């Protein structure tokens, strides 16, 4: 077996070391992610430069890269809160958020990778308790759901806006009341609905009666005007006009002039 040249062995060792260094220095940032660079001998977390974007990167082997998901994420939180009259309400909310990309280094330095547990969740719980405490169970159950959702979003956003977290939306998915309170509210709402329907029927009936009265009054007025306008002279003139037209007809007939009680013609004939 031939011996390796003296130069070959160091070359192989150097090549192996380079491969190890490259393997430890190479990092790939996935889709929807970004990297925060930590320089061991250069001041720690890099906060004054943009995060490492998607793709392949080479960093010094003694440095570290912390990878964050920077696309929109969702947290589903279930919590117990109190209404304005002290009743226990179960609230389920969905929070849409993402880290502030431009300040990802500061987020890592100040909040760490646990920023959701340390900042976001306490903020949403605090905002939900504050907002729900302003409303009664009936308002929470029916008319104020959208308003509550918007108020929780606004209050949570105020808390996290300087914490390098971008809050996109808060959705109230469910509000669960104590069964006895829920049943009482449903009965009340049903009674109110029935009352509104009854009032509507009364108003409709009153309008229909008013319509019939107006129509009857109109007919009575028309008849009175017509009766007042039909004098004996007008009736006689109309009778004469009718007699003339009948006399011009070829149908056989007998016309008796002035034989009626009022002096109007009486017409006799086969047609």
TrEMBL record:
Keywords: Membrane, Transmembrane, Transmembrane helix. The chain crosses the membrane at residues 7-27. It comes from the Bacteria. It is a single-pass membrane protein. InterPro entries: Band_7, Band_7/SPFH_dom_sf, Prohibitin. SUPFAM superfamilies: Band 7/SPFH domain (SSF117892). Residues 24-189 form the Band domain. It is found in: Membrane. GO terms for cellular component: membrane. This is Band 7 domain-containing protein. It comes from Xanthomarina gelatinilytica.
């Amino acid at each position: 077996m031939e011996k390796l040249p003296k130069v070959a062995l160091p070359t192989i060792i150097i090549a192996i070391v380079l491969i190890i260094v490259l393997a430890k220095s190479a990092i790939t940032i996935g889709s929807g992610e970004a990297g925060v660079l930590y320089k061991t001998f250069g001041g720690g977390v890099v906060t004054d430069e943009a995060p490492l974007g998607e793709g392949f990167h080479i960093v010094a082997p003694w440095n570290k890269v912390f990878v964050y998901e920077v696309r929109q994420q969702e947290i589903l939180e279930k919590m117990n809160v109190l209404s304005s009259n002290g009743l226990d309400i179960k609230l389920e909310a969905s929070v849409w958020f993402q880290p502030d990309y431009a300040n990802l280094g500061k987020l890592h330095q100040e909040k760490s990778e646990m920023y959701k547990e340390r900042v976001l969740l306490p903020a949403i719980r605090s905002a939900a308790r504050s907002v729900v405490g302003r409303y009664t169970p009936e308002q929470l159950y029916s008319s104020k759901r959208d308003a509550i959702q918007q108020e929780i979003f606004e209050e949570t956003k105020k808390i996290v806006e300087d914490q390098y977290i971008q809050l996109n939306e808060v959705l109230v998915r469910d509000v669960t009341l104590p069964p006895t309170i829920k049943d009482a509210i449903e009965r009340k709402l049903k009674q109110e609905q029935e009352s509104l329907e009854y009032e509507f029927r009364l108003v409709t009936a009153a309008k229909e009666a008013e319509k019939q009265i107006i129509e009857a009054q109109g007919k009575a007025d028309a008849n009175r005007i017509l009766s007042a306008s039909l004098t004996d002279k007008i009736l006689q003139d109309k009778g004469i006009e009718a007699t003339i037209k009948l006399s011009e007809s070829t149908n056989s007939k007998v016309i008796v002039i002035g034989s009626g009680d009022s002096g109007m013609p009486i017409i006799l004939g086969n047609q």
